[in-house]
Amino acid sequence: MSANELRKKFLEFFKSRGHAIVLSSSLLPDDPSVLLTTAGMQQFKKYYTGEADPMRDFKYKNTASIQKCFRTSDIDEVGDERHNTFFEMLGNFSFGGYFKKEAISYGKDFFDSIGLEIEYVTVFAGDKNVPFDEESFNFWENLGIRDIRKCGREDNFWGPTGAEGPCGPTTEIYINGVEVWNIVFNEFYQLKDGTLEKLKTPGVDTGMGLERLAMVSQGKRNIFETDLFLPILDILPGTISERQRRIISDHLRASAFLLSDGVSPSNKEAGYILRRLLRRALVYEYINFLNPQIFESAIIEAIKIYGNFYPELKHRRDDIINAYWAEREKFSKTLSRGIKELEKNENITSEKAFSLYETFGLPYEIIKEFSGAKSSSLTRESFDKEFGKHQEKSRAGAAGKFGGHGLLLNTGELKAKDEEELKKVTRLHTATHLLQAALRKILGENVRQMGSDITVERTRFDFSFPRKLTIDEIKKVEDLINEAISRKLKVKMEEMDIEEAKRSGALYFFKEKYPAHVKVYSAGDFSKELCGGPHVKNTQDIGKFVIIKEEASASGVRRIRGKIIP
Length: 566
Hints:
tRNA_SAD, RNA-binding, alpha+beta, four-stranded antiparallel β-sheet
């Protein structure tokens, strides 16, 4: 089956079995504990902990999704037959709707429905803290699976490393020697000290990589021979090594997805990951004397392969291509000098490697690969440590001043490393309140917040609405916000009980779980919301607000990006 057919079969299978189909969330998660979305369960995290209600949001206790994912831990491994950075995770999830018996049956039934035979499965063997998962063993045996292998905690128990969260034993499904599907039974909650407590409502969290599923379904030897990669690889010249062709195809494909979700190349956070991918690919272009148009063609092919299922790729096609060329132009100015400098050095230490990165933009992967024995002592850990030292210095003592994280403010939605950034995000935060109020006044009171993210450069606000806004509507919203700003409205804060706040007409984010006593911020008679701050004291302090983009975020959800012009 083609990848498109597999996606369709998976979603139809679970829809027919009482699951709400939920669109993929962005690669930039709302969860501040992770840099990028790494698993399908991330957008459902609050439903496992009880902070959000699946019946209210989905009308079902069970959901299924195909989630865009990105794992930075595999960047150095890309080039072999199985590792890649961006991937799609097919998953079904239950928040008290069903547990082991049904989840295991669904796994068997799905593979039967697409004509694949399970080779063997694994279950948790048990340890001193959690007993052998005899229940899962018996369920598989009753379904006719004879090869059931017992494995330890490292293989068959999932839990957050060094953090709190739901966790539990897993059962894994193998086909042709490949682990295809991992089914997690969230029975426990892990505290920070590693102690496990039984969850009041156990849940199911599963993940199956589409690339691996396509590989076994299409009878291929590796993921790069599937229809998800082959059309991109065919564009790249056969004169370069297979390893380099795989790295280029993976990195350009992943870059297209990051760019489509609004990431820009930079030297920090997700932007740094994107820059590493693009520049690593561009080094291969340089050393192999490739025509620059080849990479653009490869990116366009990736958009063609995925654009029907992820329309944001098509919508932002020109932005993606333009961002690629801009980064290429920026990197090309120093690349040749960087390669020459690399060749001059006899011993590449972590200090020297970082100097090459800082001066010429050479990624760690390229320094390591092209310096050979000269960099025998250089490791990713030592390079990252040197990178961390530089970040600490550039903060000029901010880390010590602001609690050891280099941030003066970090609420998840808002981040600021110093007083100057705090002023900017504060103005944008209040502007975001005005944005929601204006949207409701122009589009109607069915508009409600679905998520937000504010940086020093812009605000990103997701809201429920069934269609694209017209140019006239966008202008009306923008004008109404700036009118409120020009009215010099006072922004005041009141503390009150949560129920009193709701009765007062204050807006609130329905996905959040609020304390019994809350703060309510009002901008004159224009907006009123439950919020923890910070805010300006008067709307005139905001400056002029402009809407820079309006686009789809998910089914029935629109996204607006805006910024302030001082």
